[in-house]
Amino acid sequence: MKRIITYFKSLLLLELFAGLWLTLKYLFKPKYTMHFPMEKIPRSNRFRGLHALRRYPNGEERCIACKLCEAVCPALAITIDSGPRAADGTRRTTRYDIDLFKCIFCGFCEESCPVDSIVETDILEYHFEQRGQNVIHKPQLLAIGDRFEPRIAAARAQDAAYR
Amino acid sequence: MNDALIFGITLAKILVIAVPLIIAVAMYVWWERKVIGWMHVRIGPNKIGPFGLLQAFADVFKLLLKEVIAPTNANRALFFLAPLLAVIPAFAVWSVIPFDQHVVLANINAGLLFLLAMTSLGVYGIILAGWSSNSRYALLGAMRSAAQVISYEIAMGMSLVCVLILAGSLNFTDIVNAQAGPKGIFEWFWLPLLPMFLIYYISGVAETNRAPFDMAEGESEIVAGFHVEYSGSAFAIFFLAEYANMILVSFLAPILFLGGWLSPFPQAWGAIGAPGWWWLIIKAFVFATAFLWLRATFPRYRYDQIMRLGWKVFIPISIVWIFAAGLFKYYNIVTIGH
Q1: What is the ipTM of this complex?
Q2: How many degrees, rounded to 5, is the angle at CA B242 between CA B240 and CA B245?
Q3: Within 10 Å of residue A25's Cβ, how many Cβ atoms?
Q4: Residues B1-22: what's their mean pLDDT?
Q5: How far apart are CA B86 and CA B83, in angstroms?
Q6: Nearest chain B CA: its distance from A124 CA (Å)
Q7: Global pTM?
Q8: B286 touches chain A (CB under 8 A)
Q9: B39 contacts in A (CB within 8 Å)?
C-alpha cells in the first residue's frame, strides 16, 4: 500500500518542483560576480604577490646578500650570487633571480629577511610574453621596488603593530 | 503564374521562416547562457554588444573560421553527411508549423505524421555522426542517443495520439482551432490531457538530448558524445540542429496542448482575448526558458533510469490516458471548436 502511495506521489513530481523553485529563487538573487578589470576585490595588506627588492630612503639597496631567503625558500625559487661591490667593497648580491614558476608565494623570504629587503607586493596581475621571462633578475626586482615603494611601505606600516 | 515565380515565392517563404529561426537559435544560446548564469548566481556573457547580446554571433564566427578536422580513420563521406542529416529535418519540420490562423508554409493534412517522421529522421544524423567518427566515445554517445530517442519517441507518439483523438485531425491548424472556445485557457487540451502534456514535454526534452536527459553528450563520461570528433562549422551545424529542435518542441507544446495562437483569456474580454501570433511566441518562450531551467536544476539521469522512466512509467501512463481520451471523446466530455 505504501509503495502504491509513493508511486502516485512520485507522479506529482513534487521533488522536481521543489528543485525548480530553488533555482528560480537563485535566478533573482544578487550576483557575486566581480567585473574584474573594472572593479577589483579589496586586497589585504598582507597579500603576497609579485616580489620586489626595496631600497633605503637614501637610495642604497637594502639587500646585504645574507642568503637567508635563498636558504629558507621551500620551492628553491631564489638563486643568489654575492661578492664585494667594486665601489666600496661592501658585500652585495651580484645576482638575485626569482623563478616565478617555482615560487609558491609562501612569504618565507620576506619573513626571513633581516633588512626587509625582499618583499612580496600586492601586485597579482602580471604576465610573461616569452619563455625565460618567468625568471626575474635583480634590476627588475629593484625597479618593481622603486616603482611601488609607497604602496609597499604603507602596507608594512599598517601591519607593523601586529608583529 | 509561371513555375519560376512560384519557385521564387516558395523560396522567399522558406527564407522568411529559416532566417528568423537561425537568429532565434543565436538569441536562444545567449538566453541560455544568461539564464543558467543567473541561476548559478553569475551574470553570464555581458561584454560583446549590449548585455552580451552579440556573444552568440561572435561564437558562430569563431566556429566558422576554425578548421574542420576529419579523423584519419573516419568514413569521410558519412562524417560530413551526418551534420546535414541532423540539420535538414530540424529545419524541414518548420514547414508545417502554423504561426497564426493562415500563416503556415505547407498546410498539409497529415502535419502531425510529417512531424513525427522528420523528428525521427534527425536521430540518423546523430547515429551516423557517432559511427562514422570511428571513435569509442562518439559511438557510445550515438548508441545511447539512439536507444533513448527510440524509447521516448513511443511515449511522445502516444501523447500525440491523445491530442489526435480529441482534435480529430492531424492538421496543426485544425488542432489549434479545436481548442478554441469562449472560456479561453480552460478550453485547451492541457486540462483533459494534463499527464500527457507533461509526458510530451519531458519526452521532448529527452528527444532533443537535453539535460537532464543528455546521455548522448554526457560530458563527464564520454566527453561530448556523438560530436566529439567534430570541429568548426560541422560542429556548429550540430549545434544549430539541436537548438532548432529545442525551439521546435517549445512551439509544439503550445500548439498541441496550450491552444497555439489562441488567447488564454476569454474571448469576451475584447483585445486581450483576441488570438494572435504573439500568444504563440509568448508560450513558446516560456517553454524554451523551461528547457534552460531544467538544465540548470537537475543532474543527469543515469542510463538505466532513463530507460526505466521511458518504458515503465511513461508508456503505461500514456496507454491508460489514450483510453481516457477515448472516453472523453465518446461521452462528449471535451467539446471541440467554438
Answers
A1: 0.75
A2: 105
A3: 10
A4: 87
A5: 5
A6: 23
A7: 0.80
A8: no
A9: 23-24, 26-27
